[in-house]
Amino acid sequence: MKNIISASVLLCTLLLSVTTAADTATAAERDYSFDGKISRTVLENYLSRSITFCELLNGERVKKQLRGSTEDNIRMLTNVGVKFAGRAIYMWGGESRLDGLLERARPIVKKIHAADPDMVLQAAAFEIVSKQVETLKVPKWVFDEFDLDFEDRSFDYEAMLYSDGHRVNQWRTGSSVPDMSRLETRMWFFCLTARYIDIGVEAIHFGQVEIMDDRDTDHRGWRDMMARVRKYAAKNARRHFLLADAHVPGGGIVHDGRLLFDFHSFPLRIDEVVTEPQKGVLKVGYLDSIFTRSKGGITPSGWRCDSLPYIVELDNFGSSRRPGQNIGMHYIWGYDEICWFAHQPAEYRNFWLRYAWDWIRQHDPSGYLQMPGGRTLADPVGDKNWYWANTPSEAVPTGFGQEKTIKEIWTEHK
User: Fold this and answer.
1) Which parts of 116-219 fold into alpha helices (H)?
2) pLDDT tens profile 193-216
């Protein structure tokens, strides 16, 4: 009997050892470690587990206005296996809200990193500045960074704009596209990015960089600002590094063989199947899609590539006011991309995520699908004005239910 028990114990021990070794091997296959720089393997591990999760760090708005739940969002992120949460905090103008936004975000960042220390949270510094920026004082440390004498003043909206009136009031009166070649613009973007880094953000999406660069063909303004941001991150970021990206319709910004960003990003650009109403497909070369066009060079981490890894997302850019119609352009059946997706039946939404993941990986190995997690709906679905991928529950009754599908896709593609 003793021999039987001993043999059983030995067998269990061996099985446990094998299981533990297998688990360790599986974990080792997906490395998420970086400090000061990031390897291509680790970068692609993050991009392959990326999700757009707008307002993730804006707890008050999530609950009161978007009928969501911060606690359920964290549950969903960890359940699915998200490692890169895109656009988790941002402003579209409205700079006077910055202090409150950061104050609300800080404890949520801590909760997320307690649940998963590897998860990268991304902020956005978009192609907009409004007159509200003049409600914010320029900190002394910003003057110091630019070797300027301290002045007790606020940021100067007019000093950030194209001096010839180009793109002024492009978004609405008092909201314009900033000119990165202007010193005041670089001071503002440096300040904004640094304040995001200070709450634990490790990535920044810089929006439509090219329209902030119309008067600087050598990208001197952007290169100067990014060098300062990277220096700040090397000293102050959680892992002494900032993952920076932007929408790049030209395929990316490269100067003297060096890439400005760590990875690229772009909308999916979905084409209508005109013989099948509401159906959409992906195509190389459709409109300004990035497939096979991501430029290569030497990355900020020092490694070289022929094509920089990138993510593509179900973007939001507003209603066409002709939803459901085949109007062409960058709309898909008259919707922006996330609205089109949200208006589809659940079965087709789940099918389409699998289709898009497979299509991208087959047609351009540098590309990854950024899953939809949380995004505004310019064309509401019934009474839902926000897309949540979460499984519907008491916590998130408006969830669209793609959580299970996303997890399955990622499980199948380790």
Assistant:
1) 140-145, 183-198
2) 999 999 999 999 999 999 999 989
